[in-house]
Design brief:
Blueprint: H1 19-52, H2 56-86, H3 90-117
Helix pairs in contact: 1-2, 1-3, 2-3
Length: about 130
């Protein structure tokens, strides 16, 4: 008797993604995400602050919107890294994790800047009436 095997199923995690296909996705996506991060810092946040003309509430709104956009990019990069890991596309995973590191660093810097600008004056009790 001969063993008849079932036809091979095409699951994304069954085989490693070919190097050419992997790089064809990794390089453009890395450039797109890193470019979006840099251009958003300059044109998204920078021009919003410039257009605020010193109005603190507009500067604060621009800062919060910028942090929200970075957070969205960070989540998107991590989700795409998981999907690439399921497809066993090594270079795409690495590219998305690098973008996630860049976005995490930018988000940390933006939040630190926000905390420094909104810190109470020294010697101020946090819940007193004059703070």
């Amino acid at each position: 008797m001969t063993d008849i095997t079932a036809p091979e199923r095409r699951r994304p995690w069954a085989r490693r993604t070919r190097l050419g296909v992997d790089l064809a996705f990794a390089v453009p996506l890395f450039l797109l995400e890193a470019g979006w991060l840099a251009l958003d810092a300059v044109y998204g946040y920078g021009l919003d602050v410039w257009a605020a003309q010193g109005a603190q509430w507009q500067i604060d709104a621009a800062g919060l919107a910028y942090m929200g956009r970075i957070r969205a990019l960070l989540i998107t990069a991590l989700v795409l890294a998981v999907l690439a890991a399921i497809s066993r596309a090594r270079w795409t995973v690495i590219a998305h994790l690098l973008v996630a590191l860049l976005a995490g660093g930018a988000l940390t810097a933006a939040q630190h800047d926000w905390d420094q600008r909104h810190a109470p004056p020294p010697g101020c009790v946090r819940y007193s009436a004059n703070c």
